[in-house]
Design goal:
The structure is a homodimer of 338-residue chains. Chain A is an alpha/beta fold. Chain A has helices at 4-11, 15-23, 30-43, 49-55, 74-90, 103-112, 129-137, 160-173, 186-190, 195-210, 223-236, 249-261, 295-308, and strands spanning 61-65, 94-98, 118-121, 141-144, 154-158, 178-183, 213-218, 242-245, 271-275, 289-291, 317-321. In chain A, the strands form 2 sheets. Chain A has a 6-stranded parallel beta sheet, with helices on both faces. Chain A binds a DNA duplex (16 and 16 nucleotides) through α2 and α4.
Chain lengths: 338, 338
DNA sequence: CTGAAAGCGCTTACAG
DNA sequence: CTGAAAGCGCTTACAG
């Protein structure tokens, strides 16, 4: 395996010139550059990563701490991991994957040994020991999600309150005067991430602002309970003509079946918006308008912020990514009669 | 951040003694070791990864190439990634994650730059460009799964033929004389991985060996088609009393509903075994006997084989992991009447 | 049982 | 525009 000395010899220059030619950190004479390029090609030279890390100030590796617990929703989790890796590669960074069992020890190890230049934290929970650790490590880091105590941290997340508000606005703007939110099972609001709470609060707050009636129900995952919840809310609030669903994929389909089962058609009788899913709602029956949670949006920004910190500390912050609305035809004006 | 010279100075020894004390590669005097341990603790010393990589012969990093495509079954994929990372950590190896878009270029980059000591390949397809690449790279590598051309490669996979044969044996041993396999959609058998084919062939071959009637149907994913397939096979082969299912999670539940819908009870009327799922079948209604695909089994072995290759090339091979049977009560003797 | 020293392959001031 | 050289932080023969 050729090294920089081989390239320098073949090109008839010094190793520093080879180094500068490859890094572009100083101007190189036209013909010198050509001879070096030629030598690099001839020897199939690729700089040694360890030499680079040791001499330089960067390892060009980020640690990604992603639990990969089996109780996380795998498709979304996978999409986020993929988005982080893709975003990191755009900055020429590789990603070292640290999982649940080694969350804290692993982060400590790879940052103390200077194996990584920074840390990206995924699947952040309210009480996340990784948040405290990152704070104490003082290493470049960005969290995707917001822990209970975000002081001193750089966090990026979808603006869930704005997303819920956007859903309300769409319904109200279409003429609906009574809206309902079908949410996750109650356990989700009690522990784990705080975004369901933020979505719910954003929903209720905006509905109040807009002066429309609003109700909120938590829905368990079993089909009978889902049907029950749909009936309950439509029976208890007959005026409801706009529905926002913040739940898992399977729950959506069951809700849609239940709605159809009551003889209601979407959007003629009921307008429906899916809130912040990571899955596709355009192939549902009927396709649903959606305010998606887009992994790339948060991940790209988180990686950018981590990269910025390589130059030095930046202001701690919670950066909220603006929600986007995608129309699939499931929202319309309510029937004149109500 | 303390380095090895700091530790040596505080402990009053040379840096080589510190290095040997930490690596355990040569015996160190009792009190010398104590002084070094003390200094390490006092300075919170952790060896610099880049220095280690450059001076040593190992980076202690494996590349894991896992596509993370959105069309792969995420829960299983995540379980495999997790199992690889966990297995690698047991050998004190970290894992660098390379995804789809960079499969070939990324592997070339990290191996040419000596960033990694070896490669673990996940989600291997029949025509997998990564297989050819790994062959040409000549770097320690282990594939989890078997490509069309496995020549020169080290592969590990579940023994799918043996798994299917085990299912047949269980049914035949219980007294069943006519068995059926409900498999994946036809597209799965035509492209992608080859394990569905291996499972099917193992099923048919063992049934022939045991002298029992066997049929095989491919089942699409939509509920109506699933119900249709169940009816078709039970109508066409009324003697069938033993069923093996090799399909996705949702398909299983729909099949069970369809079976119940026909008034058949499991296992009294029909014995059912789930073939090589990565999901839990013990919470199905009823719980199903299962021959699971256990990510850890293949992943641990693949990592072991990669580690072995650090000492030098080993014999190329396709190592098949023996299947295991888990009884949940869904297999019984057929009714005396047939 | 321990140490002095070479060397791994780069980057980057320093010098011209 | 280019080069000689120091140095990053380790490991490991070599020597005693």
């Amino acid at each position: 395996m050729a090294n920089i000395h081989d390239v320098a010899r073949v090109a008839g220059v010094s190793i520093s010139t080879v180094s500068y030619a490859l890094s572009g950190k100083r101007p190189i004479g036209e013909k010198t550059r050509l001879r070096i390029d030629e030598a690099v090609r001839e020897l199939d030279y690729m700089p040694n990563a360890a030499g680079r890390m040791l001499a330089g100030t960067r390892t060009r590796i980020f640690a990604l701490t992603a639990p990969l617990r089996s109780d996380t929703y795998a498709p979304a989790h996978m999409a986020f991991v993929l988005a982080v890796v893709t975003a990191a590669r755009a900055f020429d960074y590789d990603v070292l994957l640290l999982t649940e069992d080694e969350a804290v020890d692993g982060l400590r190890r790879v940052s103390s040994s200077r194996l990584v230049d920074g840390i990206i934290v995924l699947d952040v929970s309210v009480e996340d020991e990784r948040a405290d650790l990152v704070r104490s490590l003082g290493v470049p880091a960005a969290l995707i999600g917001v822990p209970g105590d975000a002081a001193g941290l750089v966090c990026v997340d979808l603006d869930f309150e704005a997303a819920a508000a956007l859903a309300v606005d769409r319904l109200v703007d279409a003429g609906h005067a009574s809206v309902a939110l079908l949410g996750h099972p109650s356990a989700v609001y009690e522990r784990g991430s705080n975004f369901p709470v933020r979505f719910r609060d954003g929903f209720l707050a905006r509905a109040a602002e807009r002066g429309v009636a609003a109700s909120f129900s938590m829905v368990e995952k079993d089909a009978p309970e889902i049907r029950q919840a749909v009936s309950a809310i439509l029976d208890a609030h007959p005026a409801v003509t706009g529905l926002v669903v913040h739940a898992e994929e399977g729950v959506h389909t069951t809700i849609l079946e239940a709605v159809a089962g009551r003889g209601l058609s979407i959007p003629a009788d009921l307008s429906v918006i899916a809130g912040v899913p990571t899955f596709d709602t355009s192939s549902f029956t009927p396709p649903l308008d959606v305010i998606p949670l887009i992994p790339a949006d948060s991940c790209v920004r988180a990686v950018e912020l981590a990269v910025q910190q390589l130059e030095g500390p930046i202001e701690p912050r919670v950066e909220l990514v603006a929600p986007k609305y995608r129309d699939h035809g499931s929202v319309a004006a309510p029937r004149p009669g109500g």
